[in-house]
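Marked as duplicate of an earlier ticket. Keeping the data here for the record.
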Amino acid sequence: MNIQLKGRTAVVTGSTAGIGRSIAEGLARAGASVVVNGRTQERVSATMQEMHDLFPDADLIGVAADVATPEGCAALFEHVPQADILVNNAGTARLNNFFEQQDREWLELFQLNVMSGVRTARHYIPGMTQRGWGRVVFISSESGLNIPKEMIDYGVTKTAVLGVSRGLAELVAGTGVTVNAVLPGPTDSEILSNWMKAMAQEQGISQEQAEQQFLTTARPTTLLKRFATTDEVANMVVYVCSEQSSATTGASLRVDGGVIRSIG
């Protein structure tokens, strides 16, 4: 399969590291003009330089904006008024104790993990439907189906993302715009990798041993028996952003290594 996205503009929120960074690279490799987004100019500039080194001919736009806020989204829209492809990747997770959390922590996470995607979709999708073509991808998580007790708030936000994605797919049916959600499982992303490094140091074991311990205790249903790479997740996202994925919409596509024990 030869995926060609030349002439398409792709916005990838939260794309200076981890899964978002790999998605941005995958879309650039396919020929799309890619908008790299992060909260700080320093990280955006560093990512832009590194991607230019990888893809000297790539058309890249860097926008430093905190999409967890209405003001940050407005800044993104001012720099990039229209897009053909939108990947709502910005998000985070925090280990916590449900009974010790404050309302503020729930609301802050909801703003980043859910409302950032709501705002960007609300802005970019109307233009896509007018032009008769568009691809929207929400990065959810297997935690949206298997709510983790150590971060219930995160699981709830990822469940909400699935609802937004399916609802929007229904809303734009027949317009040439597809909307899908991708559900990674344990992935060697910046956030989870940092957790594993900290766990390894605390217990005096290797990071690989820490990852295996995590899978055994927290995700025992994994069939992959290892963390996925960010590129493996990005491969699915690049496909659903392509011309070839035109019949795939309203779907929740799992790249979870078989963690979720269901056929459907």
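See parent ticket for discussion. The chain has a mean pLDDT of 96.
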